[in-house]
Amino acid sequence: MSKTIRLGENSKIEGEKVELRESIKIGANVILKGKEIRIEDNVTIGNNTTISGKSIHIGFGSEIEENCIILLPAECGEFYIQDNCFIGHDSKIVVPFFRAGDYVTLHNHLFVNGISSCTIGHNVWIGQNCILNAYDRVTIGNGVGIGTYSCIWTHGGHGELLEGCNIFKVAPVDIEDDVWIVGSYNVISPGVRIREKSVILTGSIVTKDVPSNSCFAGNPARDISDKVHAYRKITLGEKYEMMRKFMTEFVVAYYKGNTSKLRNGWRIKDGKYSYEIIFLPEADDKSIGNDSVKLVFTKKNFTAKNYKNVTIFDLSTKTYTKKRTKIEIDVIKFLLYSKARFLPS
Question: Is 256 helix (H, G, I), strand (E, B) or coil?
């Protein structure tokens, strides 16, 4: 066992193909069991947690807190979370297939169950005590927020069919990018599709499809977009200036007294390390310069080089070139979830 891997008392890792990277912390009484297990750098797994399935992948910088139970079929089950994810304590995931993208936060006492798949995109936030029922497929897009004590159901059935009960349904649920299910105690019914940039207000029961960029509320939820407008149009120039404001706030909050002003940004001193945050209306290889650790915010990325240390945030595509530097991770976490959400390119 590598010196950078801390394995707690009574913990076991069992698999035919096991790959453990650096700086991994595994608590006491943890069981990891699968045919293929891959744990990336800087992962933390809390005490009394069990993860089993055919294939297990835990991405860079992710944390799974204590008392979590993640059980997938040994012959086919896949559990795959990408970089900088968080699963809160006492959560339970029991499905054949579970996948989550980068920077996904799943708060404590989450319950995911069913016989189908649950797929979650990047930059998703799900509050405590939520239920994701995957009796049929559950698909959650990028940038989705789901408030506490909310439920997504893909099946409804208990009345006895043999006695003529007419209430029975099994159907997938699709929640598209940037949907916000606000507050608490919302219910999404089987077969519903909530389209991108829609907002569901607190305490709503959604029983039918929701159009994009709309606002629904009530029981049953109805369209109130004439009263509440979910989004307004923002120009690329406005986004650029808004991002400048956000980065000014970031520098003050994280590195006050350790920065020097550049013509187009800041130089940051963090112990023995030095970073830059710069703004370029158009980014190309000449304007970026040397391959040092820096973040570049631009309206349009025209670079051709494959930089090792430079993270480029392209506002026209809302993507960034992931390098996993400390400053990149700090900035993304500062921007999440309400300021700005970027996808890895």
Answer: coil
Q: Which two tokens stand for residue 284?
A: 């190309």
Q: In what order do the strands lie in the sheet with 138-140?
A: 17-20, 36-39, 55-58, 78-81, 97-100, 117-120, 138-140, 173-175, 193-194
Q: Which one has a higher pLDDT value, 71 or 257?
A: 71
158 part of the active site: yes
All residues at 6 or more sequence positions from 257 whose CB lies less than 8 Å from its CB, including other chains: none
Q: In what order do the strands lie in the sheet with 187-188?
A: 12-14, 31-33, 50-52, 69-71, 92-94, 111-113, 131-133, 151-152, 187-188, 205-206
| Preceding amide of 337 cis, omega within 30 | yes
Q: Give the pLDDT confidence of 98-151 residue by residue, as tens digits.
A: 999 999 999 999 999 999 999 999 999 999 999 999 999 999 999 999 999 999
In whole angstroms, give the CA distance from residue 313 to residue 299.
Answer: 9
* Residues 189, 173: Cα–Cα separation, whole Å: 8
Give domain limits for the chain: 5-223, 236-344
Which residue in the block uniquely carries the two structure tokens 């000014």? 248
Residue 247 near residue 267, CB atoms below 8 Å: no
Contact indicator for 207, 187 with CB cutoff of 8 Å? no
Q: Which of 57, 155, 158, 229 is catalytic?
A: 158
Rg (CA), the chain: 22
Q: What pLDDT shows up at residue 3?
A: 55
Across all residues in the chain, what is the average pLDDT?
A: 96
Provide CB contacts within 8 A for 29, sequence distance 6+.
Answer: 8, 9, 10, 11, 47, 48
Burial of 295 from C-beta contacts in 10 A (0-12 / 13-18 / 19+): buried
Q: Per CATH, the architecture of 5-223 is what?
A: 3 Solenoid (2.160)
Q: What's the DSSP call for residue 3?
A: T
Q: What is the pLDDT of residues 212-254, one digit of tens each?
A: 999 999 999 999 999 999 899 999 999 999 999 999 999 999 8
Find where tokens 């993270």 sit. 311
Alpha-carbon distance of 132 to 149, in angstroms, equals 11
Q: What pLDDT sits at residue 335?
A: 98
